[in-house]
């Protein structure tokens, strides 16, 4: 049974929605969290939590338990088959978390859910939002035939956001889309188990990322990927794009899927009492592992702003959230698209690309700038507190 009224209604219980609700609950805000799925997914796309995201999670008490369940990767490499083009060290980042944490999104969601439960907040599921009606003091949410009044509503309900649609916010971007294959596998490999690697190949990029329990996450552009990639398909993908002299051998496929991504961004992250975060506000290529990370950073920033406003702060704090986070999302969209273009350059331009990357790798300040960019710490100075 839904309550009749709540301070903040959060729609969507992925990492963004969970982090928003946790930020609010820790500040004593009455928050209701809805999700249309009857249970959380056990498979997920994201596999890395970057240093800046860990700093944000640390502010809401979720970093330590997450770090305990992940693999620390102190560097990120860019490769062309057996050639190391660029090694980006994270161990000198100006952060308490000088690494990329390799951990499945499902584990991230589980940790956030546990922290919420400690505060007495659970996910109400399955609950389907069907409409929003503006009122003088907020919004009435229509949920499975019931009505719930809220001072604010947060749309964290993904690319096909009902909240965004009901608020009348445009979601625009290029008409083209990228198709990806994603799988968790076990492999016999000579690659280091403490680093993530991006392989640049003519047919597209391949991300190789270690996870706990000797699992490896593979993500690759693949226009004609099967809906459930098997061992033979993934082995062929590694043979085409991965190491050549000491090739990986897939021994088990734990799960796999395909998905398509449009590069889109909401026209605004705020429309009155309705606010957007995460994939409801921006979607893009998984290259660089920025999507979930930006969503969590959206969440903590938005949850903090909402708590401040409900405690008597100026409403302009919410405008400031929208004005700050949208340019960051535009930056991440450009960055992810650029990585894909870098991987798929025509053969005539690949030698120049490889030379440029090797030159960058030989210059410590350049390596540090790339590390700050990948880790999200380049955005830290733009975020209050």
CATH topology of the domain at 5-75 and 94-174 and 263-347: FAD/NAD(P)-binding domain
Global Rg: 21 Å
Q: What does the largest sheet look like? A: 8 strands, mixed
* Class based on secondary structure composition and strand pairing: alpha+beta
Q: What is the correct CATH architecture of the domain at 5-75 and 94-174 and 263-347?
A: 3-Layer(bba) Sandwich
The CATH superfamily of the domain at 5-75 and 94-174 and 263-347 is FAD/NAD(P)-binding domain
Shape: globular
Helix content: 25-40%
Low-confidence stretches: none
Q: Total number of helical segments?
A: 10
Q: Residue-averaged pLDDT, rounded?
A: 91
CATH class of the domain at 5-75 and 94-174 and 263-347: Alpha Beta
Describe the structure.
This protein has a domain at 5-75 and 94-174 and 263-347: FAD/NAD(P)-binding domain (3-Layer(bba) Sandwich). The chain is of the alpha+beta class. The chain is globular and about 65 Å long. Strands 1, 2, 8, 9, 10, 11, 19 and 20 form an eight-stranded mixed sheet that branches. It is built from ten helices and 21 strands. It has helices spanning 15-26, 51-59, 63-67, 105-118, 162-167, 231-241, 291-310, 316-343, 350-361, 364-375, and strands spanning 5-11, 31-34, 48-49, 71-73, 75-80, 83-89, 100-102, 123-124, 129-135, 138-143, 146-155, 171-172, 177-188, 195-199, 206-211, 215-221, 249-262, 264-266, 270-271, 274-276, 282-283.
């Amino acid at each position: 049974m839904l309550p009749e009224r709540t301070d903040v209604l959060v729609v969507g219980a992925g990492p963004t929605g969970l982090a928003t609700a946790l930020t609010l609950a820790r500040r004593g805000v009455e928050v209701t969290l809805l999700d249309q799925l009857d249970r959380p997914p056990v498979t997920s796309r994201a596999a890395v939590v970057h240093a800046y995201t860990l700093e944000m999670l640390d502010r809401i008490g979720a970093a330590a338990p997450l770090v305990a369940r992940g693999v620390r990767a102190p560097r990120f490499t860019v490769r062309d088959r057996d050639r190391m083009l660029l090694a980006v060290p994270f161990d000198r980042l100006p952060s308490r978390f000088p690494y990329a944490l390799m951990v499945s999104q499902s584990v991230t969601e589980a940790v956030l859910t546990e922290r919420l439960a400690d505060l007495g907040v659970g996910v109400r599921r399955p609950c389907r939002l069907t409409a929003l009606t503006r009122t003088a003091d907020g919004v009435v949410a229509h949920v499975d035939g019931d009505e719930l009044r809220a001072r604010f509503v947060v749309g964290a309900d993904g690319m096909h956001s009902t909240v965004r649609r009901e608020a009348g916010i445009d979601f625009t971007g290029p008409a083209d889309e990228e198709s990806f294959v994603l799988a968790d596998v076990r492999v016999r490999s000579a690659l280091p188990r403490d680093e993530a690697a991006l392989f640049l190949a003519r047919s597209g990029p391949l991300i190789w990322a270690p996870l706990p329990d000797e699992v490896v996450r593979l993500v690759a552009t693949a226009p004609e990927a099967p809906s459930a990639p098997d061992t033979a398909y993934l082995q062929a993908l590694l043979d085409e794009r991965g190491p050549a002299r000491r090739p990986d051998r897939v021994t088990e496929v734990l799960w796999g899927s395909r998905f398509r991504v449009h590069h889109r961004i909401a026209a605004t992250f705020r429309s009155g009492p309705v606010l957007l975060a995460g994939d409801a506000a921006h979607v893009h290529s998984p290259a660089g592992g920025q999507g979930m990370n930006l969503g969590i950073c959206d969440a903590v920033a938005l949850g903090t702003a909402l708590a401040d406003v409900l405690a008597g702060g100026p409403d302009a704090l919410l405008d400031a959230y929208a004005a700050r986070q949208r340019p960051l999302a535009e930056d991440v969209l450009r960055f992810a698209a650029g990585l894909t273009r870098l991987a798929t350059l025509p053969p005539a331009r690949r030698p120049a690309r490889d030379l440029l990357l090797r030159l960058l790798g030989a210059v410590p300040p350049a390596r540090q700038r790339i590390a700050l960019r990948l880790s999200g710490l380049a955005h830290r100075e733009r975020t209050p507190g």
